[in-house]
Amino acid sequence: MKRKFLFSCYQSPRGKLLQALETDYLTHVITAGCKQTVLQIGALGWENDFIDCSLYERFAIIDTLGEGYEQASKIRARAFSLPIQTASIDLIIVPHLLEFDAQRFQTMREIERILKPEGDLIILSFNPWSLWLRSQYLWDKKLADSWKGHFIPRSRIMDWLKLLNFEVKSTAEFGIDSFKLVHGKFSLDKSTLFSSAYAVKAVKRRYTLIPLTPVTATIQPLLATTGMESQRVKKND
Known about the structure:
- The protein is of the alpha/beta class.
- It has a single domain, classed as Vaccinia Virus protein VP39 (Rossmann fold, 3-Layer(aba) Sandwich).
- The chain contains seven helices and eight strands; from the N terminus they run H-H-E-E-E-E-H-E-H-H-H-E-E-E-H.
- It has an eight-stranded mixed beta sheet, with helices on both faces.
- Helix 3 links the parallel strand 4 and strand 5.
- Helix 1 crosses helix 2.
- The protein is globular.
- 33% of the residues are buried.
């Protein structure tokens, strides 16, 4: 299981701090109503820390092994081939999945397919420039080798979202003891070496093309003279 590397990172002191920061972040940015449909792709096991599974009756976790918080609904499936109806999900959470997915762009296409227009997408991913992550990769080489190190820069995630007609609403970087949330303007530069991970929140846009057809209109004169007035003008002449 490639995601064992993720769970191994969460067991380290820095990883436990990262888990707490990500929990705080998700609690802050999840705005879906309790009656809306929320889907998480990739199990963590501590989902109830950031979303009340007893309150969100339409919250489900998709995982190949059926793992996740015990009281949450679970679906066994692969991320690149989701057994979900098109345009049926209000919010999708993708926590540290794309780094471990060999078909991650196809997964992104599936996410775009099942998300409703104006639906929200939240992605968590490791910072590929993190010194801590690199040290974990070298320290736990056995687990890291099964992963092959698919670190994804934030700029690439944002390029994929733009290609799939998503609008990025905010980004965040998880530092040593806090996370920095940025709205509106986003930089495609590399994240800092001290950020363990980053997050991107985007909304799916659906644009309707309005066909342009030629309009023929006759231009009427602003002033018009009557027949009698035109005759008077001729007599005066």
